[in-house]
Structure formats: C-alpha cells, structure tokens
Amino acid sequence: MCIRDRLVNELDEVFLGPKLTGNLETDLKNIKTEKQIDFYDVGIPGFRGEPEEKIPNLVGQVITPLSVDLEGLYKYMNGYYKKLKIKRKWEAENNTVVRIINFYTPAFFKEAYQIPENRLYDFLLFCIETTDIQTNFKKENYVKVVSVFEEKGVEYSNRLKEHKQEKKE
Predict the structure, then answer these.
(1) Which of 67, 68, 79, 141 could form a disulfide with 136 if both were Cys (CB 3.0 to 4.6 A apart)?
(2) What pLDDT sits at residue 76?
(3) Distance from C-alpha of 48 to C-alpha of 40, rounded to nearest angstrom
(4) In 3-state terms, what secondary structure has residue 169?
(5) What are the backbone dihedrals phi and psi of residue 50, each rounded to the nearest 5 degrees, phi first?
(6) Between residues 87 and 35, the one the model is more confident about
(7) Is the dihedral of CA 101, 103, 106, 111 positive or negative?
(8) Which residue has the higher pLDDT, 38 or 119?
(9) Under 8 Å CB-to-CB from 68, ≥6 apart: which residues?
C-alpha cells in the first residue's frame, strides 16, 4: 500500500448529527431546512394545483379489443362522467365570471351598459353561454370581450325592460 492511498482513506474527525439513525427516510425528515423547495425552484417544469380525475374515452380506453374496464363502463352507464363534465364546465364558467367582475368592476358595467349590480352575474353567464367571451378573456383579447359586452349589453337590457313591463301588467 502506498502512502497516497492511505492518506486519501483517512479522516481526521467525523461528526454525525445528534439524531441520525442511519435510515435515510427518517433522517431526511428530521433535517431542519429554512425553506422547502419544489420542482420550480430547481428549474424542472411540473404541475401545480389539484389533480383532476381523467375522463377516459369509452372506446379505446374503457372498452378495448382485449379488455373492458368495468369501473369506467359503470361510470359511463350511470352518467357519472357526463355529470363530471358538466360540473367542470360550470366551475370554469363561474371562475371566468368572477375574474371578469374583478377585472372590469361592477361600476363599469353599470355605467357603460346599464347592467344593475344584482344582475351582473346573470348577464356575464348569458354572455358566456351565447358567445366565445370565455376564450377571448382567457387569451386576454379584451377588444373582443368589450365588443361582446356592447352587443349583449343592449340585448340583455332590452330583456330586462320587457321583463319589468310584463310584471307590471
């Protein structure tokens, strides 16, 4: 054995923390860190948010030439996936309405289109259901969003006036 090998393998002093057990999983949990990091901190792309249940295609994913996913087939047959799609659509619409209200403010709609604040939510849902305003707002195409407000604002105001006249009669 040469002197160089002996010096490389020798350590003067080794200090292990007071609570190390040798079990890496336990030891890592016991190490105190200032801030927990995630994949974005080190430059790795990833998903942030709550994972959603995937809705598989009936043919090709639930029913294949060699197998049938009974749970998936049951969920299709009892309408679970249809209800889930509708729920997600409504949640997306409601989130868009809230974001539009926060972006433009109720006073804007009252002044520009005579939409009362208590009818604003209904008006925006009307716009979403009859136009592609949701896509345009998401893409930040505000010129098209405002043009929808101008078009549908007149139509909605007329409907409100008709509804008030019907109540009077």
Answers:
(1) 141
(2) 94
(3) 10
(4) coil
(5) -95, 125
(6) 87
(7) negative
(8) 119
(9) 62
Q: Alpha-carbon dihedral of residues 142, 121, 134, 88, nearest 10 degrees? A: 150
Phi, psi of 63 (to 5 degrees): -110, 115
Coil, helix or strand at residue 26? helix
Residues paired with residue 63 on neighbouring β-strands, in sequence order: 59, 68
Q: Which two tokens stand for residue 141?
A: 């195409």
What average pLDDT does this structure show over 20-45?
78
Kindly report, residue by residue over 98-153, the tens digit of the pLDDT: 999 999 999 999 999 888 899 999 999 999 999 999 999 999 999 999 999 999 98
Tokens of 148: 């929808």
Instruction: Name the residue ranges covered by the structural domains of the chain.
Output: 70-168
- Return the biggest CA–CA distance within the chain: 110
* Residue 127 identity (one-letter amino acid): C
Q: At what angle do helices 106-113 and 120-130 cross, to 10 degrees?
A: 80
Q: 8 falls in which pLDDT band (50, 70, 90)?
A: low
Q: Do the beta carbons of residue 148 and residue 131 sit within 8 Å?
A: yes
Residue 29 confidence (pLDDT) above 70: yes
Of the candidates 101, 119, 99, the one whose C-alpha atom is nearest the C-alpha of residue 160 is 119
